Amino acid sequence: MAKRDLYEVLGVARDCGDDELKKAYRKLAMKLHPDRNPGDHQAEESFKEVSAAYEVLSDAQKREIYNRFGHEGLERGSGGGGGAGGFADIFGDVFSDIFGGNRGGPRRGADLRYSLELTLEQAAFGTTETIRIPTLTSCEPCRGFGTADGKAPRECQTCRGVGQVRVQQGFFVLQQTCPTCRGAGTTIADPCKVCRGAGKTRGEKNLEVKIPAGVDTGDRIRLNGEGEPGDRNAPPGDLYVQVQVKQHELFEREGADLYCTVPVSIVTAALGGELEVPTLTGKAALKIPEATQSGKVFRLRGLGVKPVRGGSVGDLMCNVVIETPVSLTKAQKELLRELGESLAAGGNRHSPRTHSWLDKAKTFLEAHLK
To answer: What is the dihedral of CA 338, 342, 348, 353, to 10 degrees?
Structure first.
């Protein structure tokens, strides 16, 4: 089955900027997150597809490879574990043979990715998390060399350590990967019995990750040198910790601002009053003016989140929803009927929006029923 275009998955243009890319990813991640779609297998698969697309397009080097060579370029480049190795795998068969480029020598270790879920509070104020990741570690008995005696492997006698050999083909002299050492430039006569000459063993490690205050879904934290070890003591790769903020029971975050829905009684909405609303740091007073309508949004300044990349603290946006009373007694219902009759007698003075809507509806129907 053909893979979908990554830009199509995220719903962005190919020339979109980093901010637009991140915004699109956050919107889709919030919509498709498994916490919001329990038991929905399709939403879970879509969430994985969106996350994978963002992982590629948010990385400048991977995005360049994808833009030029599509999915095939990413698949062929993945063997090198990031960095220049990806390009070498794509171009090596052609360019190294023609221009004599050296593909030999130990390769840098692969980059790793770890998805870390945080609460809104942890993301807003920062935290330190300990994560445990499976990885390939440098073999201790051979010190990563892959040799039984723990010493550096010998130089390949066929290519003299270059990793490539010259081959005569008609009028041309080409360079190809050395068949003896397979481009490594070295050979191991007596391999380590623990790692069998690979120089790596499977294991796990604990890492302490410091999460800066203000991170949001889609942000990545790079831990240099915490990826897989390179071949035979080559530099290790990096670990990318990708942040995913869990759904909050009260708040939704948009950039630096927080949004919450505040139910208000019909009495308070009509007569005005003051409510206590929760914030990330405690409580705050929300003043409800007289004659407040449902859907009115009140801004509490400075009670949002301070962005991780700097800037002023966001605001808390309180969306008022007028709550219709339920489970009324007979006496309460009678009082409401009396109130309704009294309000109806006042006409436009008490319900200007209702009367305006009725006038528009009447005009519309008269025009279309002729």
So the answer is: -20
